[in-house]
Amino acid sequence: MIRFNISPAIVLFFLAPAIGELLSGSSPPLEFFNPISLLFLSSLYGGGAIIVRELKVFWRKDFRAVVLLGAAYGILEEGLLVKSFFDPNWVDLGILGVYGRWLGVNWVWAEMLTIYHSIYSISIPIILVELAYPERRFESWVSMKVFKFLAAVLVFDTVIGFLFLTDYFPPLLHYLTALLVMSLFVYLAYKLPAEKGKVYKKNGGPRLLFSVGLIGSTCFFSLFWAGPYIIGYPIIIIIAGIMLVFAIFKFLKRFDWSNPASDLNRLAVVGGALSFLILLSFLQEFNSRGMALVGLAAAFGLLLLRIKVKRRIQNPFNI
């Protein structure tokens, strides 16, 4: 069998923007694969995902830290770089430029994008690459020199984006508050205590957990995309969004994620979450040529990874 010796960091570097921007339709194929755009998005999403994963390894934390650091990344990108948390005329806002806007902040949009980047742009790509490279799951993937370089590039991208992406500049207090909240998420991830062990946890099953991922993803996007047209009070959506996230994580905590066989369950949850975007990509084909191929490629990639993971579980000594 042919094996390709590609660094997991390289895979993560390109997979993070491929999910966060390409599969979501935020950057359709013609825009995404423009060399300049691809380099910028990869340095932003890919660099951010690598930094988050390396911090998890450095600090010896579990995946809860990845979610918190992913939220910090979402604030960095949307609050500090593109400033969409505050800009009422940001191109992608739609109704959320008015609905949920209070004291100069697009609150519903800010919550949605923080959750989105935490889960889809950062956490899911890291899970997928760790599933593809199980033997390197607990190792650092880049040297300290590369880590510092990626961090410097991320800061550079943020400064350039802040200064030149749009001519809108939020009040200093708003910007400093976003910076403070981002720092708080990083601090919470750093101080996160080890999860207390339980006597018994359920093993779960791929079908159940795939359904959880798909239903959770469908509820999330439906809440923030359709909710503003149905629900008159933005605070209801904000509270519902928080409750949805906590409910899903509370449910997932019931299962045992420590044994090797749980890798199929990890993939099932992620596959379910991504299936919503995969199905959506076929509808986006009418507006953005090539999105159906993106969806097919994503589905095929998940299928290949499932075959690899299942084969590894059945033959653990023949990875």
What overall geometry do the principal axes of the alpha carbons give?
globular
Label the structural class. Answer: mainly alpha
- Taking all Cα atoms into account, the compactness measure Rg is 19 Å
**Topology as a string of helices (H) and strands (E):** HHHHEEHHHHHHHH
What is the share of helical residues? 55-70%
Q: What fraction strand?
A: under 5%
Spatial separation of the terminal alpha carbons: 11 Å
The spatial strand order of the largest sheet comes to 1-2
- Total tally of structural domains: 1
Ranges where pLDDT stays below 50 over 5 or more residues in a row are none
Report the average pLDDT across residues: 93
The main pleated sheet reads as: 2 strands, antiparallel
Write down how many β-strands occur, each being a DSSP E stretch of 2 or more residues: 2
Q: So how many helices?
A: 12
SSE topology:
Elements: H1 8-23, H2 29-32, H3 35-58, H4 63-81, E1 101-102, E2 105-106, H5 107-132, H6 144-164, H7 172-191, H8 206-225, H9 227-230, H10 234-252, H11 262-284, H12 291-314
Antiparallel strand pairs: 1-2
